[in-house]
Amino acid sequence: MTVLTERRADVAVLRLDNPPLNGLSLATRQALLRALEDAQADASVRAIVLTGGPRAFSSGADITEFGSPTAYQHPNLPTLIDALEHCTKPVVAALNAVAMGGGLELALGCHYRIAEPNCRLALPEVKLGLVPGAGGTQRLPRALGVEAALNLITSGEPITAAAAARVPGQALLDRVATSADTLLDEALALAAEAAQQAQAGQPLPSLRDRKACHPRAEGYFAFARAMLKGQARHVSAPLRAIDLVEAATRLPLAAGLAQELQVFLDLMNTPESAALRHVFVAERAAGKIADVPASTPTRPVQHVAVVGAGTMGSGIAMACLNAGLRVSLLETQAPALERGMGNIRSTYEGQAAKGRLKPEALADRLGRLNGTLAYADIAQADVVIEAVFEDMGVKEQVFRQLDAVMKPGAVLASNTSTLDLNAIAGFTRRPQDVVGLHFFSPAHVMKLLEVVRGEQTAPEVLATAMAFGKTLRKTCVVSGVCDGFIGNRMLDPYFRQAAFLLEEGCSPQQVDRAIETFGFPMGPFRMSDMAGNDIGWAIRKRHYVEKPQVRHSRLPDRLCELGRFGQKTGAGWYDYRPGQRDGAISPVVNELIEQHRASLGLAPRKIANEEIVQRLVLALVNEGARILEEGVAARAGDIDMVYLTGYGFPAWRGGPMHWAEQQGLYAVAQTMRRFASAPHGDADFWQPAPLIARLATEGGRFHG
Ligand code: NAD
Q1: 479-513 pLDDT per residue, tens
Q2: What is the fold of 487-698?
Q3: Do 487-698 and 303-479 fall under one CATH topology?
């Protein structure tokens, strides 16, 4: 049963009961329609209260049904709302906790609405590249007024019931309940009053009968469009929503609803909405680990120790402080410790100076931070995160120490980017407690956290690491142990392709511009200049020894040999003036590229931007497919989340694996084969990963 009916005197209470958040799945819609019809047919019922549970009234449509026939099966959401609106007995929506999307639209079909003060109301469809599809764009402006409704619809952000009730002239909420505890009783009282009024012959109120007006409609909508234009470059939903809200001010409800449905269906078929819906689902799936069920116990984490107060250690410490945890920061030398503590302090002070951090919060954060040079001071921490130099010898020293001093049950984490986590775990007598926590720089800002599962990492430790990441508000993706984990491993062929493109005829600017036009915030050369070209150089030197068969362009090495490490040295693929992050075209680099081509006997050719994009993104995709097949990532969606949250892949393209599927894996494999057989081609590089080759012939999907 997904809807429970109970009687309170002559009021029928219909309670949505589809955990966790009362998604409006087909079964729930069917049950609700049945319960509504029963209550209407029952002569002893004088009014109806529709409510949810403590966690939600309803979070809206069931997203897994989106685009599938089930979403349209009877009763669909508009039909259900129509039934509520035309119910002959007063229906009161009693809104608990969350009324979002279809959930709010359902409430808008009821005759009366009451909400607990903290209930969050939202129409978040634009975040999925859609507009509300069950009357939201037509009824909300009638209920809340045009401007407030438009803000809600185009932002997708929630408003609390208490705030909504303060909007002048609003008819969204008839009442705000005193508290969540009294909501039902107050809803019952409202229902009793409504029943009395109905009995006295008063017509039932309906948003259908209200007008959505704006005193300066034309100017206002033009202004709203101008405001959203930049943001709507890749996603058309916000602008389409403005059209619909404007239609609500001009058209009768039925005509507006018909227009809304058409726009909704149009948008549903856009690639950007498919991508954003994929991201929504992938984000929620990323936290799930097949053999570590949600019921796996986790260890409490309140006190975190960070070893190493450099770039990463300081950022990780701030991420933990921001989440309300206690942090001990350990270094071996006082000057390094002072530098790290000073960096943290000055970052927070900078935020406070800009008004982004209140003085109390600044004091609170620094009050929870403690710097030390003694391992004894961190022994009682629940989690310790090592962020020392990327050197196995140093890691060994640190982990042996940690093993000796840390309390039993402490989680021992390493932030290593490239070293073998299993080997690191082997330095301890408790490899089951060792896990990788691969943060991205700056660690207090970047959303991504790769949680690296060692061969012996215990399920409980993995579950604790995931819960800890969630506390830090990170998007956590589990990666197996391999060189570079998911994200950096894929970056390797991406950078190799970028360098080959230079050899063949591109300039760094052309490559960067092409992929930035595709939607990345930064192309490979600007990115490498920012991160430091020496980092890639060090990794390549290791690869030359470990994987001599892999083909590299030596051009990036030539650049490093000139000391052009990027922004930090004022020169990399671009030239940088002091204090400026925007690079200028470098004649030195142009000369270097030309000499390099000449030394290889390569005549530059003209390369289309489309080829640049395909070669860079398909380089990611091919490695992603290998990662998936090897089980390093559990799902293609996990790989997408890594690229979306850690590497700037445009959300409206859904991530590399989703993008590849949208092209069709057959087409992807064909394109790779075309690159392999081109005169300048690299047959080894463009060998489609076995998974892609198989899915291309089977017509399969990564996400299936
Ligand atoms: P960093 O050089 O800025 O900082 C390292 C710090 O560790 C220094 O302050 C050093 O004094 C300290 N240290 C060295 N040996 C120590 C020891 N035995 N005990 C305590 N402290 C010690 O380096 P970083 O960029 O912060 O990188 C740290 C780790 O994080 C590395 O493993 C790196 O691969 C990884 N990582 C770096 C990035 C990045 O973008 N910089 C991103 C992800 C992961």
Answers
A1: 999 999 999 999 999 999 999 999 999 999 999 99
A2: N-(1-d-carboxylethyl)-l-norvaline Dehydrogenase; domain 2 (1.10.1040)
A3: no
Q: Specify the pLDDT at position 657.
A: 98
230-241 pLDDT, tens digit per residue, is 776 788 999 999
Question: Three-class SS of residue 684?
Answer: coil
Catalytic residue among 85, 125, 272, 450: 125
Q: Which residue has the tokens 């994929």?
A: 278
237 within 8 A of 125, measured Cβ to Cβ: yes
Q: Of all protein residues, whose CA lies closest to atom 3 belonging to ligand 1?
A: 310
CA of 443 to the centre of ligand 1 (A): 12
Rg (CA), the chain: 29
Quote the DSSP letter at residue 594.
H
**Percent above pLDDT 70 for the chain:** 100
| All residues at 6 or more sequence positions from 19 whose CB lies less than 8 Å from its CB, including other chains | 53, 55
- Interhelix angle 533-546/524-531, nearest 10 degrees: 100
Strands 584-585 and 574-575: antiparallel
- Residue 704: C-alpha distances to residues 67, 371, 397, 695, 696 (Å): 15, 49, 45, 10, 13
Calculate the alpha carbon distances from 101 to 63, 98, 107, 351 in Å.
11, 10, 10, 35
Q: Cis ω on the peptide bond leading into residue 75 (within 30° of 0)? A: yes
450, 453, 455, 494: which is closest to 474 by C-alpha?
450
Rounded (5°) CA angle 146-152-157:
170
Ligand 1 atom closest to Cα of 397?
Answer: 18
Note if 147 is an active site residue: no
> What percent of the chain shows pLDDT beyond 90?
94
Distance of CA 43 to the CA centre of its chain: 49
Using an 8 Å Cβ cutoff, are 628 and 638 in contact?
Answer: no
Residue 65 annotated to the active site: no
Q: How many other CB atoms sit within 10 Å of the CB of residue 242? A: 22
Q: How far apart are CA 308 and CA 340, in angstroms?
A: 8
Sketch the domain layout of the chain as residue ranges: 3-268, 303-479, 487-698
The predicted-structure confidence for 642-699, as pLDDT tens digits, reads as follows: 999 999 999 999 999 999 999 999 999 999 999 999 988 899 999 999 999 999 999 9
Task: Of 139, 268, 155, 192, give the one whose Cα is nearest residue 10.
Answer: 192
| Fold annotation for 303-479 | Rossmann fold (3.40.50)
User: Which residues form the pocket of ligand 1, taking CB atoms under 6 Å from any ligand atom?
Assistant: 307-313, 330-332, 336, 387-390, 394, 397-398, 415-417, 438-441
3-268: CATH superfamily: 2-enoyl-CoA Hydratase; Chain A, domain 1 (3.90.226.10)
pLDDT in the model for residue 679: 84
Q: Specify the length of the chain in residues.
A: 704
Q: At which residue do the structure tokens 């909400």 appear? A: 115
Residue range 295-319, pLDDT digits in tens: 999 999 999 999 999 999 999 999 9
